[in-house]
Amino acid sequence: MSCLTRLIWTLVFAVIVYSVPTPGHAADSKTKIVKFAAFQLVGPEKDKVAQYIYDIGTAVMAARGYKAEFYKLPFKRALLDAEVGKYDGIYGVYFSPKRSKVFAYSDKIYDVETSFFKMKDRDLPYQGIADLEGYTVGHINGAANGQEFERARHFDKTALTNKVQMLRMLEAGRVDFILDARNVVPQIIRSKLPHLVSKIEVLEPSFRSRGIYAAFSKKSPNYLQDLKEFNAGLAELTQKGTIQKIFRSYGIEWRRSVNVK
Fold first, then answer.
1. Omega before 194 within 30 of 0, i.e. cis
2. Which of 1, 106, 140, 165 has its CA 20 to 30 A from that of 187?
3. d(CA 43, CA 106)
4. What is the pLDDT of residues 166-196, one digit of tens each?
């Protein structure tokens, strides 16, 4: 994305933040900060991979007079810290029925396709999850990949800390496949591991389509109000086309199916 486009979106967010407050947020009141734990996509270093995710969260909360702050952590730690109320919630996650006992999930933000990836030079047949028998699959530690994946016992699973680690394990042959978001992995390869651009392939068909959500910790005293405001901001910006424009500014198509968890 060009510097000019980034500047335009920065100005858009500024306009949203400093516009007339919505009901319930007095003009002279201090802006409320909502702190989200977020998944560290590539490692401890600062990065802009999948920045559109955070641009959306910033815009959605700003539309309701809130400031969103994101604290990027290894996924398992982010999940646990948010669960106990250290943060107001965790941002950019899949829905999990089990975790809905401790988190209140927002309306769906967008859909992402999850797919298996492999090295192109390895002749590994794949037409579906049944073909993984006897192989090892790398995945993010703590990620809710769905019951079909979690219950499968015909292949080995290796839980890893971040996506760069997954890709390096795949390159080294320590895992045979990895499972992750179809639109994020290529971004990470281009920005962090460019020597792999022509060496890794995404497998067809996609494994499944997953919704991405904000999940508010039920340990946070204001979680119901924060959830309400997030959903209202998301609906408002979706109706205006702002969410779709953020995606297009990164060259990504926005997709969201019927809002079913």
1. no
2. 106
3. 26
4. 999 999 999 999 999 888 898 889 888 999 9
